[in-house]
Design goal:
Elements lengths: L8 E9 L5 H9 L17 E6 L3 E7 L9 H15 L3 E6 L9 H8 L5 E5 L7 H14 L4 E4 L8 H11 L18 H16 L9 E9 L4 E9 L2 H8 L4 H18 L3 E9 L7 H6 L5
Parallel strand pairs: 1-3, 1-4, 4-5, 5-6, 8-9
Antiparallel strand pairs: 2-3, 7-8
Helix pairs in contact: 6-8
This protein binds guanosine-5'-diphosphate and magnesium ion.
The site of magnesium ion has 6 residues, from helix 1.
Amino acid sequence: MNNDKQSFKSGFVNIIGNPNVGKSTLMNAFLGTKLSITTPKVQTTRHRILGMLNGENYQIIFSDTPGILNPKYEMQKRMLNYVFSAIEDADLLLYLTDIDDIKKVNENIISRINKLSIPVLLIINKIDLHKTSEIEAAELFWKKTLPQAEIHKISALRGDNLPELLNRIIELLPEHPPYYDDTDAISDKTERFFVAEIIREKIFLNYRQEIPYSVDVQIEEFKEKEDITVIKAVIYVMHHSQKVILIGKNGTAIKKVGMEARKDIEAFLGTKVFLELRVKVKENWRNNPNILKKFGYGE
Ligand code: GDP
Ligand code: MG
């Protein structure tokens, strides 16, 4: 080509994989900011979250998605639908695995991926945790399972091989003008959404068993005043007994969540924050299509 100006590249780079393999950690690492919440628990991410990365000659639109699962209730069906949509509309698919999850391969997803005509990168994450022999065994497995995929080995947490992976992603992006004009925008989701996510993250970190999975967080008020942002959030649970656990003796448990969340929200918004948390019961909200829609879990 004689063009002295390099052509612009842009496209949708969708990250899918089993729960807990590090999908959100990887997107955050590429964006250089903690956009998606991450915890050691499975099914932390419930939505499809776009993250934009703008370079001089490229715009990557990453999608972080919920982990692949066998849905047991309506919310999980919608979570799996976000994964399917991410397989369908990708320009480049990143299938993330963490070696340990080889035993939990979802055949349906694998056959969908093998039918794709777009490039697929099979990414073995968490190499910091494994011996070379284990990593090589995983590579052999994936060569057979996803023969068209190009294999990369990384540590999203430590950053190993991430610059190389990013370069390869840019190489594989289609030539296309930027999809989003606003190059300061980092996501399609609002500040309110991420504030609710930060609160949900603290609930995932502070409670055990079924509590994190019975909870949703909705922001009822978000007022930016001159020197402080006033935020009122409601934590919905499914049963009264869960409300009792969430609040804790003399409110100590919920206070801890509030303090931890406020600290992170202040860093995220760059302002001082007044945070009020209330707990309400909404019976079986996870199976109620109307409530799910209201809570932002579109079909
Ligand atoms: P997701 O469910 O796939 O989005 O996974 P997360 O990004 O929430 O990460 C799940 C857990 O794995 C978190 O505790 C992360 O800190 C951890 N993790 C992610 N990437 C790595 C990695 O490269 N090495 C190690 N040791 N841990 C990681
Ligand atoms: Mg996640």
